[in-house]
Specification:
The chain is α+β, with helices and mostly antiparallel strands. It has helices at 64-68, 91-104, 112-125, 198-213, 260-271, 283-291, 329-342; strands at residues 9-10, 35-42, 45-46, 50-53, 71-73, 76-80, 86-89, 137-146, 159-168, 176-180, 218-222, 230-233, 236-242, 245-249, 276-279, 295-302, 306-315, 318-321, 353-355. It binds pyridoxal-5'-phosphate (PLP) and 2-OXO-4-methylpentanoic acid (COI). Residues 75, 232, 235-237, 257, 259-262, 301-303 line the site of pyridoxal-5'-phosphate.
Length: 356
């Protein structure tokens, strides 16, 4: 995209913080790289974007995003190939989802080419922050929020699009314990569950905290009407393996986020001839399969966690232990192959890695 390359102004920091990073003790999302991207929407159009040293931003106390939650975000990662090439995993997919999120939240979409180019330029500038150590990556967080200084409730007229990046290691250090939730709901039909609206995450904290008090890592969300059908797990899509087949809740419902990791895992599995099924998945089916040991595997898939195998599924007072990790041939292979693609060890035959 040569035309776009000159469209942002760039102010480089004179004071890199890179040498102060404690790489062995990186908590997810706590450390930020040297630069950030900012672009304002005013008078009906996007202004010139700029890359500036990372730092605080000022805000009006009536800023509409704080009061009414017109705020959306994305999450994607940059990786370092073994040959040192830095790549971004499928950014065009996040660009498209960001447009959908903006439309649903009545916000001006960021043009997809600008979204991708802003990320590319930012990561290029901070490429030394992309660690090549196993399990490490640079988490990229684009976000868009309403900035009108107005307590009146209406779609705002001014917005800010920003991108910050954060070096991260593994999200979960062990297989996860999840609990099937039968009271709280993440999303309802007609709501905003399909998009990455900030409020979805705020609303999930209390239910997640309740299950964490009981010793679980995350919830398995079920449908808001009957709590009979499985939807997702925490901030991951969920996949089950029964009879050698991969099964996952259908994204037809507008209550489930259309995950890029799940799409990639399914495309990969299908390319190996594995049967995949996206359909309604009932709690009953999974609980019965776990009880009768026909549930061969279950795992969550998402950008932050990549592929997180599930150790225990809790349902009411019952806990089902899933088979030992070494027997989970398919999910282990998917996890390793996906990581191989992102680090240049395995050929990127799908063209998923966007070179900066
Ligand atoms: N579901 C929810 C609610 C999420 O927040 C995420 C994370 O982005 C996912 C699923 C997985 O999506 P992706 O694989 O695109 O990161
Ligand atoms: C992601 O995987 O990008 C997420 O959305 C998780 C994040 C909320 C920590």
């Amino acid at each position: 995209m040569p035309v776009l390359k000159t469209m942002f102004s760039i102010q480089e920091t004179q004071n890199s913080k890179l040498s102060s990073v404690d790489w062995e003790n990186l908590a997810f999302g706590k450390v930020f790289s040297d630069h950030m991207f900012e672009m304002d929407f005013e008078n009906g159009s996007w202004k010139t974007g700029k890359i500036v040293p990372f730092g605080p931003i000022s805000m009006h106390p009536a800023m509409s995003a704080i009061h009414y939650g017109q705020s959306i975000f994305e999450g994607l990662k940059a990786y370092r190939f073994v040959n040192d090439q830095v790549v971004i995993f499928r950014p065009e997919m996040n660009a498209a989802r960001f447009v959908n999120s903006a439309n649903r939240m009545c916000m001006p979409p960021v043009p997809e080419d600008i979204f991708v180019e802003a990320i590319r330029k930012l990561v290029e500038l901070d490429k030394n922050w992309v660690s090549g150590k196993e399990g490490y990556s640079l988490y990229i967080r684009p976000f868009l929020f309403a900035t009108d200084p107005l307590v009146g409730i209406k779609p705002a007229e001014t917005y800010k699009f920003m991108i910050i990046t954060s070096p991260v290691g593994m999200y979960y250090s062990e297989p996860v314990k999840v609990k099937i939730e039968e009271y709280y709901a993440r999303a309802s039909k007609g709501g905003v569950g399909r998009v990455k609206a900030a409020g979805n995450y705020g609303a999930s904290l209390y239910p997640a905290k309740q299950c964490q008090i009981q010793g679980y890592h995350q919830l398995v969300w079920t449908d808001a009407i009957e709590h009979k059908y499985i939807e997702e797990s925490g901030t991951m899509n969920i996949v089950f393996q029964i009879g050698g087949k991969l099964i996952s809740p259908t994204e037809e419902s507008d209550t489930i986020l259309r995950g890029i990791t799940k799409r990639s895992v399914f495309e990969l599995a299908q390319s190996w001839g594995v049967e995949v099924e996206e359909r309604k998945v009932s709690v009953e089916e999974i609980v019965q399969a776990a009880r009768s040991s026909t549930l061969e595997d279950a795992f969550g898939v998402g950008t932050a966690a990549t592929l997180a195998q599930i150790a225990i599924i809790g349902y009411r007072d019952e806990q089902s232990h899933l088979p030992p990790l070494e027997t989970r041939i398919l999910s282990n292979k998917l996890k390793n192959h996906l990581s191989g693609i992102k680090t240049g060890i395995v050929d990127d035959t799908f063209g998923w890695c966007f070179k900066i």
